[in-house]
Amino acid sequence: MLLSEESYKKIDREVAKYPAEQKQSAVIAALAIAQDEKGWLAPETQLDVADYLGMPAIAVQEVATFYNMFNTKPVGKHKISVCTNLPCALSGGVGAAEHLKQKLGVGFRETTADGLFTLVEGECMGACGDAPVMLVNNKRMCSWMSGEKIDALLEELKK
To answer: What would the DSSP string read from start to end of the chain?
Structure first.
């Protein structure tokens, strides 16, 4: 087993929400728990989740590669997703992304040399009125991200 006992207990709590014969329904939650522990979903981690849920490994891989919240390659300590879908793009999302690229010295799907930041384009985050928006590590939504707010966020995350 690749995950900690605590992670398997969390997965068990998710599995318990579904009928016994449908435990594969907890695959998204199980992958999120595994990623929280490991930082990304290596092939062996995906296989472990598949075995634990009693489902084909390819089915787990299909879920892991379909949703952009899952990292199937190593990422920095802080993954910053910038929404560049049309409403956000029209409201400063592209400019915010360019500001981040310049400040971090990386492009989309790249990680800074110090391993602190990975920058990715995000899909719609459902906060178009708050544009430009960013999501840090799939958990923290940041709204109205001006250049000044981006700089402050980066400084905070460096600590």
So the answer is: --S-HHHHHHHHHHHTTS-GGGGGGGHHHHHHHHHHHHSS--HHHHHHHHHHHT--HHHHHHHHHHSTTS-SS---SEEEEEE-SHHHHHTTHHHHHHHHHHHHT--TTEE-TTSSEEEEEE---S-GGG-S-EEETTTEEE-S--HHHHHHHHHHHH-
What the block records as the tokens of 42 is 């290596």
Distances (CA, A) of 59 to 28, 30, 34, 75: 11, 13, 16, 23
Residue 9 carries which side chain, given as an amino acid letter?
K
pLDDT in tens, 18-35: 999 999 999 999 999 999
For the entire predicted model, the pTM comes to: 0.84
